[in-house]
Amino acid sequence: MDILKAATDWAKAELISTPFFVLFGLAFIAASIGIGQVGKTDLAKAYIIPTAVAGILLVVIGAGLFFTNKSRIAQFEKAYQEDAVAFVASELERADATLKEYKNVVFTAIPLIIAACVVVLFFVNTPIWRASMISTIGMLTVILFIDGLAHARIDEYKQQLLKANQEMKK
């Protein structure tokens, strides 16, 4: 098994998925600008800032993840060439930490925040609060969707790392 190829393929797949954060972020920003141009009601006007903030956050998340994973590809080959066993061990540790983070943040905290936003929608009827909660739900749904796919990729990558680790110990 060529674990360097598996690591590189995983990072390249991440480079393909992280721009979707940016695309959704730009869509949120475009929606904010559009609402600002044509929105006449108080509720429509209330969406302008929360939707723009959600869009900016998604763009920042996407850009940060893209550049982090892009630099990681070059580091993989260097680390693997220096010490393949240590590379696999460090990648296993990173994959475990990432999977734990997904469990705690993406699959626990985000659904709880979405539920809290829904509860606020039931009890608060002012336009800015409604717009903020709905924009937050939209942004978190995008994050949940994209990170759900990323979780599956890193889980598969971890399985490949475990196989490589066993092969190296033989």
Report what the structure shows.
Helix 2 (19-38) packs antiparallel against helix 3. The mean pLDDT is 94. The protein has a single domain (3-169), classed as Methane Monooxygenase Hydroxylase, Chain G, domain 1 (Up-down Bundle). The protein has helices at 3-17, 19-38, 42-82, 84-123, 127-169. With 170 residues, the protein is mainly alpha-helical. The two termini are 13 Å apart. The chain is elongated and about 70 Å long. It is built from five helices and no strands.
Brief write-up:
With 170 residues, the protein is an all-alpha fold. Helices cover 94% and strands 0% of the residues.
Protein traits:
mainly alpha; 170 residues; Methane Monooxygenase Hydroxylase, Chain G, domain 1
Secondary structure topology:
Elements: H1 3-17, H2 19-38, H3 42-82, H4 84-123, H5 127-169
Helix pairs in contact: 1-3, 1-5, 2-3, 2-5, 3-4, 3-5, 4-5
What characterizes the major β-sheet? none
Provide the CATH architecture.
Up-down Bundle
Low-pLDDT windows of residues: none
Rg from Cα: 20 Å
- Class, according to the CATH hierarchy? Mainly Alpha
What is the number of independent domains?
1
How would you state the average pLDDT, rounded? 94
What is the name of the CATH topology?
A: Methane Monooxygenase Hydroxylase, Chain G, domain 1
Distance between the termini: 13 Å
